[in-house]
Automatic annotation (TrEMBL), chain A:
Superkingdom of the organism of origin: Bacteria
Family statement: Belongs to the CPA3 antiporters (TC 2.A.63) subunit A family.
Stated name of the protein: Hydrogenase-4 component F
Residues of the NADH-Ubiquinone oxidoreductase (complex I) chain 5 N-terminal domain: 60-92
Lineage of the organism: Bacteria, Bacillati, Bacillota, Clostridia, Eubacteriales
Pfam family, one: Proton_antipo_M
Molecular function terms, GO-annotated: oxidoreductase activity
TrEMBL record, chain B:
Membrane topology: Multi-pass membrane protein
GO cellular component, one term: plasma membrane
Organism expressing this protein natively: Heliophilum fasciatum
PANTHER family: HYDROGENASE-4 COMPONENT E (PTHR38601:SF1)
Protein name from the UniProt record: Hydrogenase-4 component E
Residue ranges of coiled coil: none
Membrane-spanning ranges: 6-24, 31-51, 57-77, 89-110, 116-138
UniProt main location, coarse: membrane
């Protein structure tokens, strides 16, 4: 029965499309966003208590890793839905979108949530592929939502790059299925492949893994396949950017990691781990110059995603229990922080009518609360204590220093430090200093756009990250440890 | 299964022709021919290997890729394109030579890795891989949005062929999901192309050059 929470986003999506009044569209959307975490919580709790759950005749398989992903989806989904209410209402009043478009926005947003929920829970790796491709399709509509030149460009690049990528992942899946068939297994169900993976032909599985890493890696933003990411994140409406960066990349990452577990069992040696470690470090290194020289705040956040994904992937590549725990913790921290930041930046963009870092000056003086939120968010993202990201980065780097190859830790630390300086430099420019004269003259006009209290929901994930940095609650720690155990191959 | 290899090779030839092709309408015809050949592969697999769900796959392939998509493409072409002649990045001769070189390279590469696969697969593996790469090559060497979609579909055809030849298709439910995604992606890309036409007054992807850095 508890699986009926899957119906919530579907019903919400349809209602939002057909209800005529914009006020009710907003309300239904917020209600859907609120019901989803409440309805999903029993399942998550059950997984943590009793281990992996199988539902719907084995089509759905929810273990601790899926539970972590579910948690992120429903939490960030809730925040994005509530924030959309204020954000989209302002866009509507500014005449940027009309009521029909508002309905379509909510329709696609909740369908997007639904496809991501499916991606988190399906057992069959083939259906995982289908779900991830479906997320691309729905979110491409949202990336191109505004229909401007730049958003169409971003949507086109996004859908083409990710479709090509995911086609290659399908090639990998076909090869894996073939390997499974050769050892007498006619299935792509992860829970059935896992115990049998040791019998698969190593060469075939290796080849399959390369294609899957490239394919799902495109979606997760591994360099050098990350080009669509800054474009899509900067052009999508901000609540959607939050969903894309906080949730979607994690769905793709988990796809890679599930495959990785199989490959580690099938292929002796360090092949899979080295591949992930290489992609991880390369992504971090590539992201640094773009972070340092960035001029657009949303693109800055996108490149920071490339960097953090790199760290998570590298941590899984290191593979020690400490590194895997760091990976799951960092994945959770990064998702929450990035969601909060995209929402804060969304508000900032509406207030200042620009995304250019150079044009946002003296935010602390101009809009004290928003400036403070931005400062806190960017510091958290850069990995400053006492936020949770600091702790999880420390964990991963410590695991790296303890790895057989000692340079791994240093290779992770160097880009982290460089990106930190870049982030602090940018945020310093934006929040400190005095606003220009021109701004002071037009200040009265901007004061008129008052905020709605619902927008402060953006601070909820940030507060959670702060809490996790100061004191990690036992239940969260337990959940993360269980998810790390799945990453380490401790399935059934 | 020799028959499958022959059909596959014809599909490969079609893909090579696509890379050097200069007309929008012929690209759609080419894609239709590819889809028809793919349906044939599905039917042969169904009959020879006796895998019943492949009849369903063949039917879906026929309905979606041979009937629905080409009709939609031609409809879109009539509506939005006056000039059917394209200016590809490479001249047709260079492109075709490049395509052939690519195929030769794939054959050498597959020959050298020596995967432990049975005879069925060893024949079709390089053919499918070549079709997939030729799809990518088509996307790189053409500027029109439609040709990028056609390139993507060619890639998918290569994948379907590989899946059918090696494992008699994926599990049926996965197959259904993939078809659904393919259909939806074609619709969405069509919509985007239309928006591109409205906003940029052209479907040349060269115009998409604002976002960088």
């Amino acid at each position: 029965m508890e699986m009926w929470f899957l119906a919530i986003p579907a019903v919400t999506a349809c209602l939002c499309l057909f209800v005529p009044s914009p006020a009710w569209k907003h309300r239904i959307n917020a209600l859907g966003g609120l019901l989803l975490p409440i309805a999903a919580m029993p399942l998550i709790a059950q997984v943590l208590r009793e281990g992996p759950q199988v539902r719907w005749g084995g089509h759905l398989y929810v273990d601790a890793l899926s539970a972590l992903l579910l948690m992120i989806i429903v939490l960030v989904g809730f925040c994005a839905a509530c924030f959309s209410l204020a954000y989209m209402e302002r866009e509507r009043q500014a005449g940027i979108i009309d009521t029909a478009k508002l309905g379509r926005y909510y329709l696609w947003m909740h369908l997007f949530l639904l496809t991501m929920l499916a991606a988190a829970m399906v057992n069959n790796l083939g259906l995982l592929w289908v779900a991830i491709e479906a997320t691309t399709l729905v979110s491409a509509l949202l990336v191109g939502f505004y229909g401007r030149e730049a958003s169409i460009e971003a949507a086109w690049k996004y859908i083409l790059l990710c479709s090509v990528g995911i086609a290659l992942a399908l090639l990998g899946l076909i090869l894996l299925y073939f390997a499974a068939m050769q050892s007498g297994l006619m299935t792509l169900n992860w829970s059935e492949l896992l115990p049998a993976a040791g019998r698969f032909d190593p060469e075939l599985v290796k080849l399959a893994f390369i294609f899957v890493v490239i394919g799902f890696g495109t979606k997760a933003g591994f360099a050098p396949m990350h080009n669509w990411m800054p474009d899509a994140y900067s052009q999508a409406p901000s609540p959607i950017s939050a969903l894309l960066s906080a949730v979607l990349i994690n769905c793709a990452l988990v796809g890679v990691f599930r495959f990785h577990v199989l490959v580690v069992r099938a292929v002796p040696g360090d092949f899979a781990s080295h591949l992930l470690l290489g992609f991880g470090i390369f992504s971090m290194v590539i992201a640094v110059p773009f972070v340092l020289l960035q001029h657009d705040i949303k693109r800055l956040l996108a490149y920071s995603s490339v960097e953090h994904v790199g760290l998570i992937v590298a941590a899984v590549g290191i593979g020690s229990p400490l590194a895997l725990f760091g990976a799951t913790w960092h994945l959770f921290n990064h998702a929450l922080t990035k969601a909060a930041l995209f929402l804060i930046v969304g508000r900032l963009e509406q207030q200042y009518k620009t995304r250019k870092i150079a044009r946002i000056r003296g935010a602390l003086a101009r809009t004290p609360w928003l400036g403070a939120a931005l400062l806190a968010g960017i510091l958290a993202l850069a990995g400053a204590p006492p936020f949770g990201l600091f702790m999880s980065e420390l964990t991963v780097v410590a695991a790296g220093l303890g790895a057989p190859k000692g340079w791994t830790g240093m290779a992770l630390l160097a880009p982290l430090l460089l990106a930190f300086t870049g982030m602090v430099y940018h945020v310093g420019k934006m929040v400190l200093g005095m606003p220009s004269l021109k701004w002071q003259r037009s200040a009265a006009m901007v004061q008129a756009t008052s905020g709605s209290p619902l927008e402060w929901i953006a601070l909820l994930p940030l507060a959670l990250v702060l809490m996790m940095g100061i004191m990690l609650p036992e239940v969260v720690r337990e959940g993360l440890l269980q998810a790390a155990a799945v990453l380490g191959g401790a399935g059934r | 299964m020799q028959l499958v290899e022959i059909v596959g090779t014809v599909l490969l030839l079609a893909a090579i022709w696509l890379v050097g092709n200069r007309r929008l309408d012929r690209a759609v015809v080419n894609l239709t021919i590819q889809a028809l050949l793919l349906t044939l592969v599905a039917l042969i697999t169904a009959v020879v290997a006796g895998v019943h769900h492949m009849y369903g796959v063949a039917l879906l392939l026929f309905l979606i890729k041979v009937v629905a998509m080409p009709m939609a493409f031609f409809w879109a072409l009539r509506r939005s394109e006056r000039v059917l002649e394209m200016q590809p990045v490479l001249s047709p001769v260079v492109a075709t030579v490049g395509a052939v070189a690519l195929v030769v390279m794939v054959y050498f590469a597959v020959g050298s890795i020596r995967l432990p696969v049975p005879a069925v697969m060893s024949g079709l593996l390089p053919v499918s891989l070549s079709v997939i790469l030729l799809g990518i090559l088509t996307m790189i060497t053409h500027r029109k949005a439609l040709l990028q979609v056609v390139g993507l579909m060619t890639m998918e055809n290569g994948l379907f062929m590989l899946a059918m030849a090696s494992t008699f298709g994926m599990p049926f439910i996965v197959e259904l999901g993939i078809f659904f995604d393919v259909l939806v992606s074609a619709v969405i890309m069509g919509g985007l192309t239309h928006q591109m036409k409205v906003v940029f007054a052209s479907t040349d992807t060269d115009r998409l050059n604002q976002l960088r850095g």
